[in-house]
Amino acid sequence: MIYINSKNRLSDVSDWFKDLKNSICKEFESIEQEFAEKYPGKAPGSFKTRTWNYDQGSGGGEINLMNGRVFEKVGVVISTITDGKFTPELRDKIPGTENKDGFQSCGISLVAHMHSPLVPAVHMNTRFIKTEKEWFGGGADLNPAEENPDDTNFFHNNLKEMCDLYDKNYYPKFKSWCDEYFLIKHRNEPRGVGGIFYDYLDTSNFEKKFNFTQDVGKTFLKTYSAIVRKHMNKQWTEEQKKVQLLKRGRYAEFNLLYDRGTKFGLLSGGNTDAIFISMPPMASWE
Amino acid sequence: MIYINSKNRLSDVSDWFKDLKNSICKEFESIEQEFAEKYPGKAPGSFKTRTWNYDQGSGGGEINLMNGRVFEKVGVVISTITDGKFTPELRDKIPGTENKDGFQSCGISLVAHMHSPLVPAVHMNTRFIKTEKEWFGGGADLNPAEENPDDTNFFHNNLKEMCDLYDKNYYPKFKSWCDEYFLIKHRNEPRGVGGIFYDYLDTSNFEKKFNFTQDVGKTFLKTYSAIVRKHMNKQWTEEQKKVQLLKRGRYAEFNLLYDRGTKFGLLSGGNTDAIFISMPPMASWE
C-alpha cells in the first residue's frame, strides 16, 4: 500500500499507523494460536477494542487490549488528533508553538508484558506531530526480566541494519538516546537492554522520514515476534518469575516518574485508560 | 517516659520516634504470633533492621522491615538528620529557608500492606523539621481494598476524639487536608478512606504540639492494631484479593506521581531503599 496519496500528511501517516496496528494484532493473535497448550482450559487470546475520545478538541483513537496465554497483557493504542491544544505548561517544551498553541498528531504505542519471564517485555511507539513545525518520533526497546545476550544482539542488530539503510548516524545516535532516556535515575539502573529512541526528526525529506518510521514499525514486529516464538514454549522457574515481577516494579517506577508519554498524557488531559495501558498486569517491590 | 528533658528539641523528639518505633514493632510482632496458623509452614514474622546514612550531611536512620504472615510487608523507617542541606529546587518550597539552606529533622514513617484483603493497608508518618522556623507535621490514613464503614468510622472517631483534646478545629481541618492530599488527581479518586494530615504545626507552644504528635502515634497504633485483630483470621475470596491488588496499583500510582515524601526524598538525595519501602509487595493494573 502506498501511503503518500493525498495532500493531507496527517491522514496519510494516520492510515499507516492503523495498518500497522492491524498487522501487529493479527501477528500476536497468531502467536496465541501457535502456543503449545500449557494452561489447560486457557483459550488463545484475542484483542478487544475500545474507542476513546480526545476531550480537549477533536480526535480520538482506539485501545486494543489482549490478555492472552502468551501475552499476559498487551496494549496497542492508536490516536489521531485533528485539533489539539497544548496546556501552557506543555507548550513551552514543544517546538513550533511560539505563535500558536494548537497541534495535530497521530501515533501508535504498544507495550507487551508476557506470562513467561523468558520472553522479554517490549515497548514500541511511533508518532507524527504538527505544530508550526512537523516531525516524527518514536523507537522500540526490549525489557527482559534477565538479559539474554542473544536476544539483545538480535534486537539491536535488526534495528541497526534497518537504520543504516537511511543514515549511518541514525543507529549510534538513536541507541544512545534510548539508553539515556530509559535510565531509571534514582537507581542509576537501565529500564531494559535498550533499542532506539528518536524525536524531532524533521520532515525536510518527508517521504524518507515517513519510510523510516514505517520501517521502525515493521522491523519491530518481525524482530519481536521471532523472539517471542523462540522462547514462549520453554519452562521457567518460580525464581525467574519473581525476578520478572521485581523488574516490572522498576518498569512501573520509570513510567510513573519519568516517562514523557505518561506526563504528556496526564498534563494534556489525555485518556487515563490509554495512558495506563502500559502498566504491568502484576508487579512487585522488595 | 518524659521526653522534654534537654535543651535539644531535635534529640528529644527523635527519642520519642525511636520509642514509638519500638512499640509499633513489638505490637506488630505480637499480632504475627497471635495469628491462627493459616499458612502451614509459615512462621510468625519478625522485623529485620538495617541502618542507612544520609549522604548529603550528617544523619541517618533505620529501616525496619517485616514480611510476615499477617503483614505481607510492613516498613517502619526512622531518621534523624542533624546537618542537612536543601537542594535549590526544594529550598524554595520550605519555610524558614530565606537566609539558610540548612535544616535538621527527625521523623517516623510507616506503611503496612497486609496479606488479607479484609485488613486495610495503612500509612502513618510524624516528623519534626527545623530551619529558621520549626514545626511538626504528619498524619495517618487508612487504605482498605474495599471500604468497611465500621473500620472507617472507628479509625476516624478515634483520631477525632484525640484531636479534640487539643483543639476542636484540628480534626475537621486535618481530615479535609488528608482528603485533599490523598486524592489521585488523574483518576479523581481518593487513595483510601482518609484520616488526618497536618503540616507546619508551629511550636509556639512546643510542649502541646509535641504531645499532640505523640498522641497521633499512640492513637494510630491502638486503633490500627484493633482493626487488624478484628479481621485477620477471616476467610477471603480470590475476587477480594484481586480487588486488593488493583487498589495497590492505585497506591503505587499515588506514591510515584504525587507523594511529597517520595519527591522530597528523591530530590534531596535520600536513601532509595528507605523511600521505596512504602511500595506494595505486589500490585496489579487492569
Question: What does this entry look like structurally?
Answer:
2 copies of one chain form a homodimer. Chain A has 286 residues and is of the alpha+beta class. Chain A has a single domain, classed as oxygen-dependent coproporphyrinogen oxidase, CATH 3.40.1500. The first copy, chain A, is 41% helix and 28% strand. Chain A is built from 8 helices and 10 strands. Chain A has helices spanning 9-34, 88-91, 149-164, 170-181, 206-231, 238-257, 260-267, 272-276, and strands spanning 48-53, 58-66, 71-85, 102-114, 121-130, 134-143, 183-184, 189-190, 194-202, 282-284. In chain A, the strands form 2 sheets. In chain A, strands 1-2-3-4-5-6-9 form a 7-stranded antiparallel sheet. Chain A has a two-stranded antiparallel sheet with strand order 7-8. In chain A, a hairpin with a 3-residue loop joins β5 and β6. Chain A is globular, with a radius of gyration of 19 Å. Chain A binds chain B through residues 73, 186-187, 245, 249, 252-253, 256-257, 266, 272, 275-276, 279-286, and chain B through 73, 186-187, 245, 249, 252-253, 256-257, 266, 272, 275-276, 279-286.
Question: Architecture of chain A, CATH level 2?
Answer: 3-Layer(aba) Sandwich
**Average pLDDT metric of chain A:** 92
Can you list the strand order of the major beta sheet of chain A?
Answer: 1-2-3-4-5-6-9
User: Which of globular, elongated, flat, extended, rod-shaped describes the shape of chain A?
Assistant: globular
In DSSP terms (H or I, runs of 4 or more residues), the helix count of chain A works out at 8
Could you say which structural class the secondary elements and strand pairing of chain A correspond to? alpha+beta
Order of helices and strands of chain A: HEEEHEEEHHEEEHHHHE
Instruction: Provide the helix percentage of chain A.
Output: 40-55%
In terms of DSSP E residues, the strand content of chain A is: 25-35%
> C-alpha Rg of chain A, in Å?
19 Å
Q: Using CB atoms under 8 Å apart, which protein chain pair has the greatest interface?
A: A-B, 21 and 21 residues
